[in-house]
Amino acid sequence: MHPAYDLIRKGFLSVTPPTSLVLFFVDAPFGRFSLSKESIFSLNGIKSWIFMEIPSPTIFIYALIKAPLLGPEVPSLSGPQLFLAALYLLHYANRALISPLRTPSRSRSHVSVVFCAICFNVLNGLMMGTYFRSSIAHSFLSGAFARPLFWTGALLWLAGFFGNLLHDEVLLNIRRNAKIKGKAKDEGNPKKQGEYYAIPRGYLYEYISYPNYFCEWLEWLGFALAAAPLPPVMSFSAFVQSAQAPWVFVFSEVLLMLPRAYRGHQWYLGKFSDYPKERKAVLPFII
């Protein structure tokens, strides 16, 4: 593999742990933690979300087709490689386009959040696309359609994907109903957009505050099980040396989203006096 691929892979594994620790104490200014004051650095929530998420599938497709970090002789894409690439693109079609275009409003995002997200998505798309076009992926996925673990991972991805859609729909319905009933803030005022919140209920919301995060973790865990060799987990240094892109992505997602879920859970408890005290943040019955 090209040294740049290894640099990106190890960069994610090195940067995300300290970043995760910081995010337990500092709220990234978007969503429910958007800055209350209007600013030139505060961007439209829906447009900025699309702008910062679309690089991931775009760069992924480029890396998959052009293989800029691989040599001139790259193996052709096999059926399992194309299948998993389609799952990746399906996720981002929903995340980058369908979901934001269906939401009636979204809180504004600070430009720093958009910049960091673009950097993450460009590098992740390049890393993932490079891996799936590589000889490592081609060799590992040879005959994958006949392996039970491949289909176990694919089914876990499917369960996580639809679980994510289901629980996101609960949040979208809260915004839609608020708008219909006139509870939402004036959408003509940029400072007020997307500021209406209520207690989500139903499905896994009865157990955790962030089932959409939990389902996304299941989704990418299943994806990694299907797509790449299991790395050693008893030693972090061994994990860093051997974990391929899909496992690096799972690692980074969990570490970056866990503090957001924890802080958001504390926000719910502080904002709503009747918020269910038995709910956990993101892992049922655990945290």
Automatic annotation (TrEMBL):
Name of this protein: 3-oxo-5-alpha-steroid 4-dehydrogenase C-terminal domain-containing protein
UniProt entry tagged with the keyword Protein biosynthesis: no
GO cellular component: membrane
GO molecular function terms attached to this record: oxidoreductase activity, acting on the CH-CH group of donors
Primary localization class, coarse: membrane
Residues that span the membrane, as ranges: 110-132, 144-166
Domain 3-oxo-5-alpha-steroid 4-dehydrogenase C-terminal as annotated: residue spans: 110-286
UniProt keywords, alphabetically: Membrane, Transmembrane, Transmembrane helix
Gene Ontology biological process terms, A to Z: lipid metabolic process
Tree of life domain: Eukaryota
Annotated compartments: Membrane
Membrane disposition: Multi-pass membrane protein
